[in-house]
Write a structure and sequence with these properties.
It is a single chain. The chain has helices spanning 2-9, 35-45, 58-65, 82-85, and strands at residues 14-17, 50-52, 71-75, 87-89, 95-97. The protein is an alpha/beta fold and 99 residues long. It has a single domain (2-97), classed as Rossmann fold. A 3-stranded parallel β-sheet has the order 1-3-2, with helices on both faces. Strands 4-5 form a two-stranded antiparallel sheet.
């Protein structure tokens, strides 16, 4: 929180937050979504925090580029991607490693 608050006070153009939560094995699981965190963070900061439903892609990049000064974004969980997880389960439930 202190780092985010410092960036807000310093009038950052935008603040983009991202995290990796849990061990969803490289697959999207709602219980590991960052969406509830965005809501709680908004309440703690008493500022709007925009939740973006992914962490990569043109939609995400465009949303951040179009932002107004002082915008705060929280991106979806990195661990929904096998590349971030480093390993995970394939559709058959077998362990796989990303190289």
């Amino acid at each position: 929180m202190p780092t985010i608050q410092l960036a807000v006070r310093g009038r950052a153009k935008s603040i983009v937050l991202i995290s990796h939560l849990g061990r969803p094995n490289g697959r999207k699981e709602e219980k590991y979504s960052m969406k509830p965190v965005a809501i709680a963070l908004s309440e703690l900061l008493d500022l709007p925090v925009t939740f973006l439903p992914d962490c990569i892609g043109e939609y995400i990049e465009d949303a951040i580029k179009r932002s107004t000064d002082g915008s705060i974004f929280l991106l979806e969980n990195l661990r929904f991607y096998l590349e971030e997880e480093g390993k995970g389960l394939n559709e058959s439930g077998n362990k796989v490693n990303e190289t």
